[in-house]
Amino acid sequence: MRRDRAVVLGAAVAVAALAWAYVIWLAAYMGALPPAGADMPGMTMPGMTMPGMDMGTTLAPAISGWSAGDFAFMFAMWAIMMVGMMLPSVAPMLLIYAGVARQAGSRGKPFAATAWFATGYLLAWTAFSMLATSAQWALESALLLTPMTGIGTRLGGFVLIAAGVYQCTPLKDVCLSACQSPLQFIMRHGGFRPDPRGAMNLGAEHGIYCIGCCWALMAILFVVGIMNLLWVAAIAVFILLEKLVVPGRLLSRAAGAVLIVAGAWTLFWA
Q: What is the CA radius of gyration of the chain?
């Protein structure tokens, strides 16, 4: 059992680390201006064309529409970023699954491998990534968003207030409870599954509850900048604490109050 848990934890850490490495690399290149006259495809955000410039001109990005390749590129970015942010927070669930699966296997009633559960969980967040990419495309098309600086002050204030209010709702409490009590969640949703498809479905169900718990926090990225790594890391750490700390609801409500105040300040005084 100890070996199985070590393997599961090691795999989760490795995958999350690779996802973070990609996001950091991507942010570093997107935040750097290309040399004058250099052709660096893929180093600019979708919707932004970087005209060539000479020593006597300034760089003036021109807004353009997204191509299918741009959409796919940003979808991949969102999906990989969600892996890096959410795998650490689901690690307790994966460890419990691995431990119970080992016990069941020793009794001759094996469960599907933990990887199937994790796959279902990440597929749910991949679906969320598609929604997030679509929202980004719509906001950029309406000239309301730039990936590095986020949406405008007014709209950003409303988003922060909405996220803060959601942190204090019963739906948030229900979803957070499912994330804080992994074993109870599994028992309430039909128990452990012996077949890979069943394990994936169980993982996807858990992922949906996790999305219900965290989607409003992810919306903050549209305010502070989608590729703002400090905020990406801060939100990931908060999500982990929210699920691990015993008075998680108090933490959620405290964050909600802060977001509401920040949104109001943004609307009326920023």
A: 21
